[in-house]
From TrEMBL:
Protein's name according to its UniProt entry: Cystathionine gamma-lyase
PROSITE patterns associated with the record: CYS_MET_METAB_PP (PS00868)
Protein's organism: Allomuricauda ruestringensis (strain DSM 13258 / CIP 107369 / LMG 19739 / B1) (Muricauda ruestringensis)
InterPro entries: Cys/Met-Metab_PyrdxlP-dep_enz, Cys_met_metab_PP, PyrdxlP-dep_Trfase, PyrdxlP-dep_Trfase_major, PyrdxlP-dep_Trfase_small
Signal peptide (residue range): none
Family under the similarity heading: Belongs to the trans-sulfuration enzymes family.
One MF term in the entry's GO annotations: cystathionine gamma-lyase activity
Entry EC number(s): 4.4.1.1
GO cellular component: cytoplasm
Length: 391
């Protein structure tokens, strides 16, 4: 369990202060305020085993520890682990399981998670069932003796469905299942799954946590010490760790998470409202609308509604959606999300290209769907860009 340098307990600090100080200490060597980039694979020992807590950087590295503590503090957990990517973090969670075990996951899932589950872990005998998780009875009906883990993504990508983490956690607890939540879209600024009953929080820190589109990093946070030991063992054994330079950059990004998220939410709201009134838009997905089917759940478990928005233009097709995304000038056409700059994506051909068309259309990821990651630029400039792209 990590410790904070200040005398106030970490539970007492409010979120914005935690973003800057949570789990952090001035460096022991020279008092450096930002943790140095310990670009080293190994550590001198005075006698075999005589070290200062670090032996070899696959097991632990001080810069990575600083990041792991920061994320654990923000999620109000006790133990953090940083990985070389979000996928490596998910991979570590799935390695808690063995052949014959079953996982129930959100049906509207990040494409890479779907690919990892179906393409890699099914080969090792882990089975995956999918549920939209809006109907708790339906979710309970999928549970059997082999079920071990529930994997939740909320808001979902790219459909922005909101899953009631507390309700799912109640069912998971009744059946003694682990509950893991991919908190990439919301970040701990908007929602903290451990406080709602989840056992594991996962992040693609590549996105909002790091926030500057300059690293690929993943993270896990848990409260339970036994579970933490198992995950540290997997992290060290499989080795999908985050390097010191990327740990440093992610930590640097986290220090402004609260300020960035506030602006992402404000800009997201302005753009969602602009699109809602746009004559060329058929459907728009954003949980902040009162008419969004899961708005009440979103209001209860999230502090704001974020900057991720998906929409379908009227009469849109695969080809017309591609034409529109090519026309953006300020929004960059790119994979990924959560950076300071605005991005636009075409899920059917990009992030969700690895999901069979039939499977993805069942969840609403139609050919004409366009996804925005609204950045923190001046919102007037972003709206002007949308305006010209939709003409
Ligand atoms: C990007 C993403 C991932 C995968 O993370 P990487 O850092 O790209 O490996 C997982 N879940 C969600 C929701 C994501 O957006």
């Amino acid at each position: 369990m990590y410790e904070d340098s200040f005398s106030m307990s970490k539970k007492e600090l409010k979120f914005n202060s935690k973003a800057i100080h949570g789990g952090q200490h001035p460096d022991k060597a020279y008092g450096a305020v930002m943790p140095p980039i310990y670009q080293t694979s190994t550590y001198a020992q005075s006698t075999p085993g005589g070290h200062k807590g670090y032996e070899y950087s696959r097991g632990a590295n001080p810069t990575r520890t600083a990041l792991e503590n920061a994320v654990a503090s923000l999620e109000n957990g006790n133990f953090g682990m940083a990985f070389g990517s979000g996928m490596a973090a998910i991979d570590a969670v799935m390695k808690l399981l063995g052949p014959g075990d079953e996982v129930i996951c959100t049906s509207d899932l990040y494409g890479g998670s779907y690919r990892l589950f179906k393409g890699v872990f099914e080969k090792f005998g882990v089975r995956f069932r999918f549920s939209d998780m809006t109907d708790m009875q339906e979710l309970a009906s999928q549970i059997n003796r082999n079920t071990k883990l529930v994997w939740v993504e909320t808001p979902t990508n790219p459909m922005m469905n909101i899953i009631d983490i507390k309700a799912v956690s109640k069912i998971a607890k009744e059946h003694e299942l682990l509950l893991a939540v991919d908190n990439t879209f919301a970040t701990p600024y908007l929602q903290r799954p451990l406080e709602l009953g989840a056992d594991i929080v996962m992040h693609s820190a590549t996105k909002y946590l790091a926030g500057h589109s300059d690293v690929v990093v993943g993270a896990l946070v848990v409260r339970d010490e036994k579970l933490a030991e198992q995950l540290y063992f997997i992290q060290k054994s499989s080795g999908g760790i985050c390097g010191p330079m990327d740990s440093f950059l992610t930590l640097r990004g986290i220090k402004t998470l609260h300020v960035r998220m506030q602006r992402h939410c404000e800009n997201g709201e302005s753009i969602a409202k602009y699109l809602e009134n746009h004559p060329k838009i058929d459907t728009i997905y954003w949980p902040g609308f009162e008419w969004h089917p899961n708005h009440e759940v979103a209001k209860n478990q999230m502090r704001g509604f974020g900057g991720m928005i998906s929409f379908v233009p009227k009469g849109g097709s695969y080809e017309s959606a591609i034409k529109i995304v090519e026309k953006f000038q300020l929004f960059t056409l790119a994979e990924s999300l959560g950076g300071v700059e605005s991005l636009v994506g075409h899920p059917a051909s990009m992030s969700h290209g690895s999901i069979p068309k039939e499977e993805r259309e069942k969840n609403g990821v139609v050919d004409a769907l366009i996804r925005l990651s609204v950045g923190i630029e001046d919102v007037e400039d972003l709206i002007a860009d949308l305006d010209q792209a939709l003409k």
